[in-house]
Amino acid sequence: MGLASLGSANRAFAQPLPEGAGKQLVEAHCSSCHATNRISSSLGYSQSDWQALIATMLDLSDNPNQAKITGYLAEHFPPSTQRNPKLPQGEITVDFKEWAVPTLGQRSRDPIEAPDGSIWWAGQWGNIIGRIDPQTGDMREYTLPAGAKPHSVTHDSQGNIWYTGNKNGTVGMLNPETGKITEHKMPDPNAKDPHTAIFDSEGVLWFTLQHSNMIGRLNPKTEKIKLVTMPTKNARPYGIKIDKNGTPWVACNGSNCLVKVDPNSMTLREYPLPDNNTTVRRLDIADDGMIWYVNSGRGRLGRFNPQTGEVKEWPSPSGASSHPYAIAVIGDAVWYNESGMRPDALVRFDRQTEAFQSWPIPTGTGDERIYSGIVRHMRPTRDGNLLIHQSATNRIILVTPQSH
């Protein structure tokens, strides 16, 4: 979701915690950053695992009440199997390589590989964007202008890093060589929440504004921004990708549609998808032009043929409540995650055999491994690997598939 107002979101999604010793401590330390429903909707953990999870969010090592906090959480929110994903097996193995980013509680997300091979991410709650050198593991974070709260990052062909200022209605550019940040304010006060952005081959930046119900275009050469409103009220444009002809396609998170954007006039054409309960977080476009999407509302993977209008969907392994979220097409495989499950499952769909295979997405290794958070965006690397994240534990993750 976007971060229009963290405080109001916390109030909207707050849920009463059960009575017990430590309740007030948990409310004081946890709900100051996020809503209490994030606790009740979690996988549930042992006391030691709650301690490991909390350590990725804030430092309680010197807090004399740490044991009371983790004890309360372990008693009232112990490990649960109620939302375990179904994990079909297959012939592919995957390696998860993690980087724990420096600033605690920043909710790192949306990693992308830049032209020089570095990996960039958005630390939305920390108001930062960051860079990883995957060869050395060195990391650097850049503080953004006050209130930006970046939702995502992308890069242009020159290696500049662009972010969407989800809270202050801006799109910004960071020059990694100088550290200079340039902000572009939205020309319409109703355009409040730039969301996901992508460049086309002409160097024009396209972006969605979910709750503002708009799509935007920024020409960096002229610095002009044009905005158009979605035809359907509350369609909530979310993911956006560019096809091989330079045409943007947009996913509707509030309605059962995909939207084609004329790159010159910005005229919008909606393509309705089956079932009114269909909602689409994100989409991707295969090399044959087929548009693959996650049907988040119905727990399905979908394929749309833009030439014929044909739609085909497959039930996700974990069913209707699995809430598929992020998606990326790499060769013959469609990758996505089941964000409604605990743990969050990484799913691979073979486009040729139509077979599924899934893995739980971890944080940590060995006895310190826990499962927490959801993937909200995933993108391929030039080597055909996959970049994902676990924002609840401040992890950026490189997934390397291997076939046998």
From TrEMBL:
This is Possible streptogramin lyase, gluconolactonase family protein. Signal peptide: none annotated. Keywords: Lyase. The keyword Flavoprotein does not apply. Pfam families: Vgb_lyase. One of its GO terms (molecular function) is lyase activity. InterPro entries: Cyt_c-like_dom_sf, Vgb, WD40/YVTN_repeat-like_dom_sf.
